[in-house]
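quick one before i forget lol
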Amino acid sequence: MRIELVDPDTADPKLLDEIGVQTATVYLAGDFIAPADGYVERLRDATRRAREAELWIALGDNGVLLGSVTFCPTGSSYVEIAEPGEGEFRMLAVSPLARRLGIGSNLVDKCIERSRELGHTGVRLSTMSTMTAAHKIYQRLGFVRDEAHDWSPVPGVLLWAFYLALAGPVDSADVAGR
């Protein structure tokens, strides 16, 4: 498996479409969103994500798309909860056929690595309370719940926040006090 940054200027439009379809399909199949939800189109628009953020993909040895994640550096239009000097990632999706192979962990590791490369002091993310498999990945990698940054993008949807400090140790009490 290899992880690559999608270059929006040279990426094959078919690959971008495949990334978008896979991301939307994962969210729909997991019952995280409804088919009529407007967010489906945002998930499908991998071209925009590649242009306005960093779109990282995991590819199998045979070039098969295994998963993707959108990393949102400071200034990206995709930033939702990161504070200045923090990285953020969104839209983590792994093919159902590639689950439990470490793909999600590797993609999150790439976001942590990118945050360090950019000199960020931490990494934030939002997730639904029902995305329990993802929560396990985040916690295993050192993220802690950050209830102070929980938020609602639309009525009836509460997103949980997680945080990972990159400049020294952090515990749940420190994050809750921010």
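fyi Confidence is low (pLDDT under 50) at residues 168-178.
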